[in-house]
Fold:
Amino acid sequence: MDTSQFRGVIPPVVIPLSEKKTLDLEAFDRSINRMIEAGVDGLFFLGSSGEVAFLTDAQRYHVLQEAVAIVNGRVPVLAGIIDMETMRVVDQAKRATGFGVDGLVATAPFYALGGPKEVERHFRAIREYTDLPLFAYDLPVCVHTKLDPTMLVRLGKDGVIQGVKDSSGDDVAFRWLILENEDAGHPLQLLTGHEVCVDGAYLAGADGSVPGLANIDPASYAEQWKAAQAGDWERVKEIQDHLARLMFMTRRVKATVGFGAGVGAFKTALWQMGVFNTNQMREPVQPLVGEDVEAIVDVLKAGGLMDPDAPIRK
Amino acid sequence: MDTSQFRGVIPPVVIPLSEKKTLDLEAFDRSINRMIEAGVDGLFFLGSSGEVAFLTDAQRYHVLQEAVAIVNGRVPVLAGIIDMETMRVVDQAKRATGFGVDGLVATAPFYALGGPKEVERHFRAIREYTDLPLFAYDLPVCVHTKLDPTMLVRLGKDGVIQGVKDSSGDDVAFRWLILENEDAGHPLQLLTGHEVCVDGAYLAGADGSVPGLANIDPASYAEQWKAAQAGDWERVKEIQDHLARLMFMTRRVKATVGFGAGVGAFKTALWQMGVFNTNQMREPVQPLVGEDVEAIVDVLKAGGLMDPDAPIRK
Amino acid sequence: MDTSQFRGVIPPVVIPLSEKKTLDLEAFDRSINRMIEAGVDGLFFLGSSGEVAFLTDAQRYHVLQEAVAIVNGRVPVLAGIIDMETMRVVDQAKRATGFGVDGLVATAPFYALGGPKEVERHFRAIREYTDLPLFAYDLPVCVHTKLDPTMLVRLGKDGVIQGVKDSSGDDVAFRWLILENEDAGHPLQLLTGHEVCVDGAYLAGADGSVPGLANIDPASYAEQWKAAQAGDWERVKEIQDHLARLMFMTRRVKATVGFGAGVGAFKTALWQMGVFNTNQMREPVQPLVGEDVEAIVDVLKAGGLMDPDAPIRK
Amino acid sequence: MDTSQFRGVIPPVVIPLSEKKTLDLEAFDRSINRMIEAGVDGLFFLGSSGEVAFLTDAQRYHVLQEAVAIVNGRVPVLAGIIDMETMRVVDQAKRATGFGVDGLVATAPFYALGGPKEVERHFRAIREYTDLPLFAYDLPVCVHTKLDPTMLVRLGKDGVIQGVKDSSGDDVAFRWLILENEDAGHPLQLLTGHEVCVDGAYLAGADGSVPGLANIDPASYAEQWKAAQAGDWERVKEIQDHLARLMFMTRRVKATVGFGAGVGAFKTALWQMGVFNTNQMREPVQPLVGEDVEAIVDVLKAGGLMDPDAPIRK
Structure:
């Protein structure tokens, strides 16, 4: 299975909604094209930033159908197949496959936890039902299990998974994953889910990144990846500092916490920048308003993503 | 909305599988009838013990269809509508309603967490889409949010929820919930999810219990509830000690942890007692074998649930 | 080692301070005598409620010296010997012993965690250095390790520990501890650290309780224990409801969280009731003020602990 | 207060013990000199790796007395003043100061937790009692509170603290700390506690590192710091990979977990390399034996820290 296409910057795509909380196709098209034109290397739909947990099955497949059509083969498409336990994930995998995506992304089981045996068996069972490249999504903040590096490399050598999207925040374990993957002949494409410490991950040997913030500033992430490939580490760091300061937008939100603050800030930024038409969120999350919107605009202006004189959209 | 029917012992029904991991209708019928005949006051399908996280949607609705037919109105039926976020839960609610169940049970949002505002809005949004009695399922071990007693009573007074199944293990918060519910005129039916401390919950004023262990020994739980209604607390405690010792079966499992040890032990017990035909589990969980089975049989024999001379089923 | 004296209500004593944050001996004397006269069965000094973590060693031994003198043999005295790891705890044990206390209370190691082997070895090592009765203090909220019931009973049978103060909030594990202790011939005195679910613990077979709230209302806890001994469970429950409502005082605090809200509320209540002369706290905690004090007074008046017309002390 | 001396590699010193668990002065002298001669920039005594939690007060001050004498001004000396709450920490600060150390290192309060107000007040209170440079030690794995970057920089601007030793493992927050510290004019010296991701921390702008593994291989950490100063990031990364592989020694331990596996592996390595005379640990931790020792030797040989033909010391 050739996985060489899954390298570089692969943003998890944030989904624009109309005021009525339906998919805003015009903004979706604009945002996707903006990222591809900025030079991203792939796109990941139905991840956490893509509100996968909030979408009904019908809404999920609507997103995939439109996404594949808009991307139209210009970059590879990864699709999240996020559900609670193995056979529900298999159902999601079968359906996603029908929409022509290039790879699948699955987490460990969640809701009813087991131990490491069950986690490994879970990925092996999914492989039995799909021929697409499969990425393990290491996301303990959502699934409450940390994936063990040694197990991941074993699954890679056995052809069960072809890559890892690491959003664990555990950079020590990610380093061990990189080293064990090298020792095994690099069976896995290793992508960091960081927005803020991508420079260190590239220096350590990551094959790419999946930063939600690349929806806001795809050009900087694309340039950063090129600088890393060229070994220009001072430039990689310089761009990272700019991006880390942009990420302050998620720290400025006062009205809520968790998903509503993080993806809520991204949607608000895209709205204020004119990429999205609203910053609408899905139930039970409410869009940000008032001083939270103002704080995000301040961050965007400080980061050069908005004209200093631009008014706040209402 | 009359919720007086949701009192007493309402076991979360464990699902028997064939060796091929399909619903074993014969055993399902036997187990349900055994519980009803033992005097339980209701049945809860598609809870955690009912493997809800592991069932595909098709399998979930198959369970509900058969369950409603077998129960046939003899006791009220609660159905779990467990999914990640609001609109996915609403989808589950709409479908479950079509199968003729008497009430619904929903957790807080999980996977993508927010704060208390989102949790409250979540339940209010579900209410907009259903006319059935709705129970809030407080299950932080699975959903990683503890439901606040004051919020629950507020939702009760507003007619959003009609009861709570408390599996939080936080008996202090449950006591506060009972007291606040009393002060508000008892809008909520409060059911403890404990197997082991049901006596204390009854003494504190709980309206009933939802013990997974009642699949194994429904008669004792039914008798315990009657003793509590009669104020015979010494008897309530005596039965509880018997049941707590039975629950040791889940502590004896060595091969795995979590769901596979808990529900795995229940299925193994029901198999060894002749209620189930196998102890098969759903992917990625494996059925218990060898010394784990032997240990469970020992507990059953010590508790008088199996004949001391009965051989171990293979 | 005779441990029969360690039964019934053994409040963890809250320490009164002057405005200058020194031990207020007058109030200390008044509060201790008030509890003994109300019928408590023992007193526990230097527990969490006794600010053990905040006291310098010199302050700790000052408290013990004065406490033993005031109690003067009327009830048994337990002393917390709380420190990070084994040999520091042994140091505390040796010194506390010199002040003539009747028993010692030690937690699992904290700060640098190990596994269950180290926890068991820790208690065995402490035993080598003391001849006093030793209670294991199960307090995961502070030490981040839950003590295993089977290990505790093993330590009891081996004469290492003579009792357990269970403040784990894990009532299932406490039930198992009670049952395993019975099966082993009751080597351990089992005390619940609950304020709010003491009724259930007594019904389950606890040998007593260590409720911080008994500093506020010792008479009710003493009466509750007598009612439990007499098998009058309705009365036990009735008193518990009164006490649970009193405990609302800790839920009303808005200015801070954690220790400052819990013990801060107790000190404020004792101050408003005239038992303490201030509600002063130790660094870095600040005493409660303003609306937090008013809310606590409201709870005390509703519970009959303060005259409805009494003014708020300033 | 000049803090420019606290830069570069400042290992947390691991303490050698005799078979009788007393300080092994000969090995202590050898290990300290070995690190200074290898080019480290400072030494940190009484940190977690220095068994601070396990030492009685008398043992702590013995360590400081000998350490200051051996170091003899060649590099600056930091001393941990680790205790539960503010005034206990102040006691430790006063005593450590008497031994002539150059700076102090304090954690957030632990055992009895409060909120952010108490954490900030804690550091401000310590400052009132000492004139030495003070480092905040961010160590949630031991103290269960994460220090907020914005608060740390505020304390830095106010002259309360002069630096941070970040062992939080939260590299995103560390990046934010670096950026906010820059914006404030660099009041704080920021040291990463990582062993494994030091390269990323240097690239991000850290002022140095406090790696326990530098007890084993001080020369590599010293060279890595020089390469970082010179901007040779490929070399920084190359050395990091070597060091990360050395750190595998802590992952190979099977007999225990936590502190006993981590510092236990370091002591075993130093013993096998001939720097220490034993791998003895303090109660309740046991030294590693058998296959754990063999696995550590394998890692040392693979990393070039031991001769491939060297026998295993018994």
In short: The interface with chain C takes residues 48, 51, 53-57, 59, 82, 84-88, 91, 109-115, 117-119, 121-122, 125, 142-144, 256-260, 282-286 of chain D (CB under 8 Å). Chain D has one domain: 8-230. The first helix of chain D runs from residue 25 to 38.
